[in-house]
Amino acid sequence: MNTPSAAPRSGFLSVLDLRRLLRLALLLALASAVAIPLIVPLAAGSAQAGHGAAKAEKSCILLVAFGSSMDEAQASFDNIDRKVRAAFPDTDVRWAYTSRIIRKKLAARGRVIPSPAEALATLLDEGYTRVAVQSLHTIPGQEYGDLERTIEAFRRMPEGFARLTLGRPLLSSTEDLERVADLLITLAPKQRKAEQALVFMGHGTEHPANVYYEAMAARLAHLDGRAFLGTVEGYPTLEDVARQLDAAKIKQAYLLPFMSVAGDHARNDMAGDEDDSWKSVLTKRGVACTPVLKGTAEYDAVVDVWLDHLSVAVEALR
Ligand code: CO
């Protein structure tokens, strides 16, 4: 092997070389003095550094609502958003809507709101490690069940979140039911007179969780002889409420949505001018109706119930 190689410089280092070396060493020492304190905390803060790359903890709250395509309904979401950010000032807050129809309508107008799965995938991609998802639904029905399954899938995902928790909807225990029923009675318009009834309109569903609406109707009746609840798509029906109003000889009623937003159902099915709206049907049966177009999420005391459920989910991130 006689590959020619650069001959080593013979002789000792000159004084000039020594000076250069010293200067270089000093520069290196200075540079590392600045750089090391920056690098060490990043490395120490990482939970699991795969392939030597440090992964810092990043937390997020994902608020999941059914959604609404009506601009007027935004007041409810804005109120929740404001209250969540105030309660958790150090945590990022994102939104997702479970309704595909609403998302499509909004996207056509240039407002892109992700589905829960899309939102979670984005959070993973952005390096979030701990996410508390809060359901803003009213009952643990179909939409909540789907959300649970989505979360389960993300929990099984390789390279997924370190922690992924889910906060329960508005009504998910007897305690919630009693607390919210008390609130609904106190949320009645201040000018309400004793002979005036409160008629709440819930969504209703074929899902077994519809029992929450039946329980709420019973609870309201127990608290106030003139408080009633019906649903658009489940039991009790508008016909049930109309018969109850008739039996109690009620001539005046406030109509209020028992939905987080005063959206399409509240504005059209409840308070609309069409023949089959609650207002029209009850008016025809001799009950003068005053609609109140305010979703439950516009009342701070109701948002506090969702916030308490979110606190449990955030606590479980640790
Ligand atoms: Co509906």
The CATH class of the largest domain turns out to be Alpha Beta
| Ligands bound, unique | cobalt (II) ion
Give the biggest sheet.
Answer: 4 strands, parallel
Q: Assembly state here?
A: single chain
Order of helices and strands: HEHEHHEHEHEHEHEHHEH
Which range best describes the helical content: under 10%, 10-25%, 25-40%, 40-55%, 55-70% or over 70%?
Answer: 40-55%
| Number of β-strand runs | 8
Mean pLDDT comes to 88
Fill in the CATH topology of the largest domain.
Rossmann fold
Describe the structure.
Mean pLDDT is 88; it is low at 1-11 and 34-49. The protein folds into 2 domains: 59-170 and 302-315, Rossmann fold (3-Layer(aba) Sandwich), CATH 3.40.50.1400; 174-295, Rossmann fold, CATH 3.40.50.1400. It is elongated and about 105 Å long. It is α/β, with parallel strands linked by helices and 318 residues long. It contains 11 helices and 8 strands. Helix 5 links the parallel strand 3 and strand 4. A 4-stranded parallel β-sheet has the order 2-1-3-4, sandwiched between helices. Strands 6-5-7-8 form a 4-stranded parallel β-sheet. The chain binds cobalt (II) ion (CO). Cobalt (II) ion (CO) binds at residues 203, 265.
